[in-house]
Design goal:
The protein has 556 residues and is an alpha/beta fold. Helices cover 51% and strands 12% of the residues. The strands form 5 sheets. The protein has a 5-stranded parallel sheet, sandwiched between helices.
């Protein structure tokens, strides 16, 4: 036990000694060590050269400034603590000043409410609104329109008109002196709030009026897909002086069967915008062309937004076309011109997600949180349904002013390249073809029954898929397989061949992914892939795929 006490004594004594040495060293550093510093400085200073003496003086000043600054900061800290402890008023002066400012704020609010009451009463009418500002500052009761003017909540008829109660405020156009309309203010008993009964969607309401007496055209439900595709070429050439090859028309019609989004790519001047425009006129339903701006960032650029101040929805032409499609039985096209001037996955993201829903009942877009009585007929509970009869066609240029279209968009769309202009040809005037969406969809389903993909072609495709997975880690995704089953039969029904349809899908949907790889490291493998394609499908087949592989191999 004595040995332990001796150990503890020596250990604790050493620790205390070291702590004391720290304080002694600090004391010598700040106070008693200056004589030693001066002695060292003097022994060297007089033997130094002129430049060295200047540097020595600067060093001395810096060393003196550091402890002086430490002392000043310590003194200031202790001085502020003493001042705070000496303040025995307990901040009562500050509290009195805050109370005085709050009183002034209440007086200003009271004065503002008086002016507001005067302005409202100056609008005319037999019913004057009493001033409620002062009581609103002190009463616990929340005043609503009904109990302020002394009336009851309004009652509405089946068409949204006011039967009794409520208050009408006439809004005048000061500039022209004309009455614009009546805004009815009602009390919402369920939420204890006020709601302005007004037309929130003026453009969509005009669409409702347009289709009140709408008479559907007589649809040609006897036309076949091949007649439909060839008829468009003749119509565009004879009526609009636009010329397209049969191959482009087949791809466009088959693309409509495979996806609701088509992307037309190619150099400027090849007819990317005029193709969907002329096609929609051929079907008797002119398309809506939306010019995409570089500033597009989110869904409000396409669909618009609700203005809480004016209580109106800022509608766009895109929204109007989307709504009008709910009234029509024929196919509708919305063209997104120069769609990759902004990032498609930003402003078109919600639409991409909606179109992926397996059930059409889920193709719903929320515009506003709740419905109002005077909302358009097909806006139910603030939501709009995306019609099955609508297609979105985007045009895209690939240059320095545009964004790269990502795989997320490509996988959901059918890309069509337009790099060559078709030769002009003469033909007799050809009429438009009024075809209903239901008949067009029935033609697509009939094509899948009449021209299913053969087992031999599917076997070759599976072998190619396995080769791509093994060598390049690329695969036919489920979405691409589904599009292939929809695209190829319609392509054949329009006059094409099965192997050409497969070739186009492989080149544009699968081999396109090579652009995201480091092709310089797989150049030799691409050469072997070309040889494998020739061996599997034949040297005279899969021309698009071979040409695409050769192009990217030479480019890199």
């Amino acid at each position: 036990m004595s040995e332990f006490l001796k150990l503890a004594y020596e250990l604790i004594a050493k620790i205390i000694y070291n702590i004391a040495q720290c304080f002694v060293a600090l004391f010598r550093l700040l106070f008693t060590g200056w004589a030693e510093y001066a002695s060292i400085f003097g022994s060297y200073f007089w033997t130094l050269s002129a430049p060295a003496k200047v540097l020595a003086l600067l060093l001395a000043l810096i060393l003196i400034a550091i402890p002086v600054l430490i002392v000043v900061l310590l003194v200031r800290h202790f001085y502020l603590n003493l001042r705070l402890k000496a303040d025995h008023e307990d901040n009562s002066t500050l509290y009195r000043e805050i109370g005085r400012l709050n009183k002034q704020v209440l007086e200003l609010i009271d004065e503002k409410n008086k002016l507001l009451a005067i302005k409202v009463n100056a609008m005319g009418g037999t019913e004057r609104i009493p001033y409620m500002g002062a009581s609103a500052l002190t009463d616990d009761k929340l005043h609503t329109v009904g109990n302020v003017i002394g009336g009851a909540a309004p009652e509405y008829g089946p068409n949204g008109e006011v039967v009794s109660g409520g208050a009408d405020v006439n809004v005048e156009n000061v500039g022209e002196g004309k009455r614009l309309g009546t805004i009815t203010v009602e009390k919402d008993m369920s939420e204890d709030t006020t709601q302005i009964k007004a037309i929130r969607f003026p453009k969509l309401s005009l669409v409702d009026q347009k289709y009140i007496d709408y008479v559907k055209p007589v649809y040609d439900d006897q036309v076949t897909l091949q007649q439909f595709a060839e008829g468009f070429r003749l119509y565009a050439a004879s009526q609009m002086k636009l010329y397209y090859t049969p191959e482009v028309v087949r791809r466009f019609v088959a693309g409509m069967a495979a996806s609701k989004l088509l992307i037309l790519e190619g150099i400027s001047g090849t007819g990317k915008t005029s193709l969907p425009y002329s096609f929609s006129r051929y079907m008797g339903n002119p398309s809506t062309i939306v010019s995409v701006q570089p500033s597009y960032r989110d869904r409000t650029e396409l669909l618009g937004y609700f203005n809480e101040f004016s209580k109106r929805f800022n509608e766009t032409e895109f929204l109007r076309a989307l709504y009008e499609a709910t009234y029509r039985d024929d196919p509708s096209l919305i063209v997104l011109d120069e769609m990759n001037l902004a990032r498609i996955e930003y402003y078109f993201a919600e639409m991409l997600s909606v179109l992926e829903m397996p059930s059409h009942d889920e193709w719903v877009i929320d515009l506003v949180p709740t419905g109002w009585p005077k909302d358009p007929a097909h806006v139910v509970d603030g939501k709009i349904m995306v019609s099955e009869s609508i297609w979105f066609v985007g045009t895209a240029n690939n240059d320095d002013s545009t964004f790269t279209i990502t795989d997320k968009v490509y996988d959901r769309a059918i890309p069509i390249e337009l790099n060559d202009r078709a030769n002009a040809f003469e033909c007799e005037p050809y009429p438009a073809c009024n075809i209903s969406y239901m008949h067009l969809q029935a033609l697509f389903e009939q094509a899948k029954r009449d021209y299913p993909i053969s087992d031999a072609t599917m076997e070759k495709m599976n072998r190619l898929d396995l080769y791509l997975q093994t060598r390049f880690k690329l695969a036919f995704g489920n979405r691409i397989i589904k599009q292939m089953y929809d695209f190829i039969p319609v392509y054949v029904a329009c006059g094409g061949t099965e192997i050409d349809g497969l070739d186009y899908i492989v080149a544009r949907k699968v081999l396109k992914k090579f652009e995201s790889l480091n092709v310089s490291f797989v150049r030799d493998e691409i050469k072997e892939l070309i040889e494998y394609v020739d061996k599997t499908f034949g040297k005279t087949k899969m021309e698009d795929s071979r040409a695409y592989l050769s192009r990217i191999q030479n480019f890199y």
